[in-house]
Design a protein that fits this description.
The complex is a heterodimer of chains A (238) and B (96). With 238 residues, chain A is an alpha/beta fold. Helices cover 45% and strands 17% of the residues of chain A. Chain A is built from 8 helices and 9 strands. In chain A, helix 3 packs antiparallel against helix 6, helix 5 runs parallel beside helix 8 and helix 7 runs parallel beside helix 8. Chain A is globular and about 50 Å long. Chain B is mainly α and 96 residues long. Chain B contains 3 helices and no strands. The chains are: A alpha/beta (238), B mainly alpha (96). Chains A and B meet through helix 1, helix 2, strand 6, helix 5 and strand 9 of A and helix 2 and helix 3 of B.
C-alpha cells in the first residue's frame, strides 16, 4: 500500500491563518505528488475557525480536508490522540497552524524519513541552518540555556526537544502519546526522550521558525517552572 | 536505566574514590599543611571540575545565543507566500 501522510492541524482561534496554512500545505504537497490529508482539529474556537474550515473543505474536497472538531479547548496531547484516531495515513505530521511552521519543510521531512526509515523526523531550530525569526536576545538566551541543560542532562540524540514540527510513523506516535504525561513544551520534550528510551530512530531537518506571537510573551515564569520540573522528572524516571 | 542512574553510576564510584583519597591525606595534615601540590590539586578536583563545567556551560550557551540564526529571509519569504495565498483565496471567494 502506498504511503499516505496525515497532517494534523490543531486550531484555536485561527480564522485568519487557517486558509493561508492550508493553501501552503496543498501547494507544497501537490508539487511533490505525495498522497496526503489535512485533519483540522478545532477546539470550539469562538472566532468562527470551524466555519472557515467547512468552507475550505467544500472547496478542496473531503478527501483532502478532514474536519474533526472538539467542543472546547482540550489540550495538545488529546488533540493528537483524537487526530490519530481519524487519520487514514500511515505517517503523521504535526505542526502549528499559525504560520510559524512553513509547510515547505514537509517534503523535506518525508525525504529525510525515507533515507533511513526513521521512526521520527524532527524539525530543528538549533542545528544547521535552522533558526528563529522574531526572538530578542533574552529569548534566545533562555532558549539556548534551556536547550543546553536538557541536552546535558538527558542526552536525547535530537537537537531540538521542544519543537512541535515533526513527522512520525503513525504507530510510533500513538505509542508515545499514550505513554506521555506532561503538558505544553514539556510534552514535546517527553515524546523525544521516551522515543529514545524505546530505541526509536530520530532524523533531523533544520527548519526556520517565524514566531508569530508579537508582543505577547509565550514564555512566562510558569512555563519556565514547568519546563524545569519536567526536565527533572524525565531525568529521574525515563 | 534512567539518566539519573547513569549519572550516579559514574559519580558515586568517583565520589567514593575521591573521599577515600581525601580522608587518607587529610588524616594527619590539614589542606594547607600538605606537602605535595599535586595532592592539594586532587583535593580541590571536584571544585575545579565544577568550575570548569560552569565555564564550559556559560561559554557554550553564550556562543549559541550570539550565533543564533535569525532567519530574516524566512520571514520575508513567508510574507510573499502569504500575499500569494491571499490573492488565490480572494479570487476563489474563500475569504472576504
Amino acid at each position: 500500500m502506498a504511503d499516505k501522510y496525515s497532517i494534523l492541524l490543531p486550531t484555536y482561534n485561527e480564522r485568519e491563518n487557517l486558509p493561508l496554512i492550508i493553501y501552503l500545505i496543498i501547494k507544497a504537497l501537490d508539487a511533490s505528488k505525495f498522497n496526503y490529508e489535512i485533519i483540522v482539529i478545532d477546539d470550539g474556537s469562538p472566532d468562527g475557525t470551524q466555519e472557515v474550515a467547512e468552507k475550505l473543505q467544500k472547496f478542496y474536497g473531503e478527501d483532502k480536508i478532514v474536519l474533526r472538531p472538539r467542543e472546547k479547548k482540550l489540550g495538545l496531547g488529546t488533540a493528537y490522540i483524537h487526530g490519530i484516531k481519524h487519520a487514514t495515513g500511515n505517517y503523521i505530521v504535526i505542526m502549528d497552524a499559525d504560520l510559524s511552521h512553513h509547510p515547505k519543510f514537509i517534503p523535506m521531512f518525508i525525504k529525510k524519513q525515507k533515507e533511513n526509515n526513521y521512526d521520527i523526523v524532527s524539525g530543528t531550530r538549533y542545528m544547521g541552518d535552522g533558526g528563529v525569526f522574531g526572538w530578542d536576545f533574552k529569548r534566545k538566551l533562555i532558549s539556548c540555556g534551556a536547550n543546553f541543560l536538557s541536552q546535558f542532562l538527558l542526552q536525547p540524540g535530537a537537537s531540538d526537544l521542544t519543537g512541535s514540527f515533526r513527522l512520525y510513523k503513525k504507530n510510533v506516535l500513538e505509542e508515545l502519546v499514550n505513554s506521555c504525561v506532561s503538558k505544553g513544551y514539556s510534552f514535546q520534550m517527553e515524546i523525544i526522550v521516551r522515543a529514545k528510551s524505546k530505541k526509536y530512530t530520530i532524523g533531523e531537518v533544520p527548519i526556520s521558525f517565524v514566531d508569530r506571537v508579537y508582543g505577547e510573551s509565550k514564555l512566562g515564569t510558569n512555563e519556565i517552572y514547568q519546563f524545569a520540573s519536567s526536565l527533572l522528572y524525565l531525568f529521574a524516571t525515563v | 536505566m534512567t539518566m539519573l542512574m547513569q549519572w550516579l553510576q559514574v559519580l558515586v564510584p568517583a565520589g567514593v574514590l575521591w573521599l577515600s583519597v581525601a580522608a587518607t591525606f587529610l588524616k594527619d595534615k590539614s589542606f594547607f599543611e600538605q606537602e605535595s601540590a599535586f595532592v592539594q590539586f586532587l583535593l580541590l578536583l571536584p571544585l575545579l571540575a565544577l568550575i570548569a563545567l560552569g565555564v564550559y556551560a556559560a561559554g557554550t550557551v553564550l556562543y549559541k545565543t550570539f550565533t543564533f540564526n535569525d532567519c530574516t529571509e524566512a520571514s520575508k519569504d513567508l510574507q510573499k507566500d502569504v500575499a500569494e495565498a491571499k490573492e488565490f483565496l480572494k479570487k476563489n471567494k474563500l475569504v472576504d
